[in-house]
Amino acid sequence: MKGIFTQKALFKSLFFLVFFQSGIAQNITGKITDSKTGEIIPYANIQVNSSESIISNAEGYFTLAEKNSSDETLLIISYLGYVPLQISVADLKKVQNNIKLTQGIVELDDVDISNEKPDAAKIMAKVKENLNKNYKNTQAKKDLIFVRHSSSFNPKKFDFEIDKSTVLSAKALKKTNDELNTFTKLLIAHPPQQFTDYLCNYYTIDTKKEDKPTVLSKLEVLKATILKNENRSASLDDLEKKFTDIILHNLDTTKYYRVKSGLFGSHDTISLGNKKKGKEKKKQLNSSKAYLDNYIRRNNIIDAKRLNFINKPEMYDYSYEGATYSSENKFVYVISFKPRKSKAKYSGKIYVSEDDYAVLRTDYTLEEGEKEASFNMKLLLGVKFSVNQSKGTLIYKENPIGEGYCMQYASLETGQYFYFNRPIKFIELAKGEKDVVKFDLKIEGSSKDKNEFMNIKREETSKATIENFKEEDFKFINIKKYDPTIWKNYSAIEPLQEMKQFKEVN
């Protein structure tokens, strides 16, 4: 019997090993580097079997979905200024999944159309003139999109104490303050971090509502995950819930309250009772669609305020840096820019197609000392806030279902500083309003957000299809650590090391 058991155990072990190795073999992760320098090439385009497009991440890596990992799969890798490379997955394996791109024959500094350098300001004027022609896509479309949002909250000072409570006994008040103290110490010791991924079909068409132009959008989420530490708060919503649980659980849920901070009071009524179920309908869907609608609008090259270095060129100084060729063998101007007027805040580079003056790519960053937004009433109100970090990359590709271009990839990283030092009261709405809970909140620190958007595939659809599509809510899959297999059946952005190394802290 012992021998039989050993054979069975051996068979199972071998079966598991073979199966596991087979599964791993189907997960193909590649790295893209410069053939001469060995430097990584971030945000390179990888066309998969001429049907989907993905982008290498900021560290130069990309991963193929399991369905695209067979040896016969054909990849075309391209990047501005480099010779496009066509390679099969079988050949990719032979080079240990390391793709080396060769710089094009044309060097940036050596290319001039004539003896005189092109006028960068005139080129940008042409870009503005052709924005609607190049980027206004009015047709009904279905985009397969992958979105990643990461956020971190880093308080360096966090004091939160209840000074007065008419509903808590002295013992309960001490216990609640101890809980608050433990909670704030945990936040400082282990700053919260969260990664949200989702893959979706995003249906849009330009239309009119009450004779005003608008965009009709529908969202179908195919898969969504949240990676965060459940023992720590990671977002403002989480913080709000945590504070509510700690402070307000002793208040009467049948009564109503308003909030007052210093001289300022809220006219909004707060109830601690259970919300009606009807209001929760499609909660995740609605918030995710609002986020995606807003993100696309904020990256609209035609009129986004943050992109005024493209749509309001009179605000910037431009310099011609040279030229290169695109993967489609288009001649491309390389133009640098920096602020000229006070409302101009960014510097960076723009890559412009010579034949139609379309922006193919731009990399931009907030100028040192500039702020995208700020509010400073620290002395008077005890409040200060500023968006003091901001940088992004936008990449466009030719619209596969019509004329012009569409956004293929967008990355936006922002950093905020905050300071809040104010007393806050919860006041019961009853005869002769009375203070119920009064506490002091002092918090100072920073937060960071990174948003990434990748358009994998665009297909033509119809207005009727979009109007008749029935949206359904979805649930996020909560994960405690990075799992490389969770997206193996889908095209996605390869995570950075920061996300791969994330682990739960108790």
Automatic annotation (TrEMBL):
Q: Does the keyword DNA repair apply?
A: no
Q: Which SUPFAM superfamilies match?
A: Carboxypeptidase regulatory domain-like
Q: Which GO terms describe its molecular function?
A: carboxypeptidase activity
- Which residues, if any, are the signal sequence? 1-27
Q: Which InterPro entries match?
A: CarboxyPept-like_regulatory
Q: Which UniProt keywords are present, listed alphabetically?
A: Carboxypeptidase, Hydrolase, Protease, Signal
State a single Pfam family of this protein: CarbopepD_reg_2
Bilayer-spanning residue ranges? none
| Entry protein name | Carboxypeptidase-like regulatory domain-containing protein
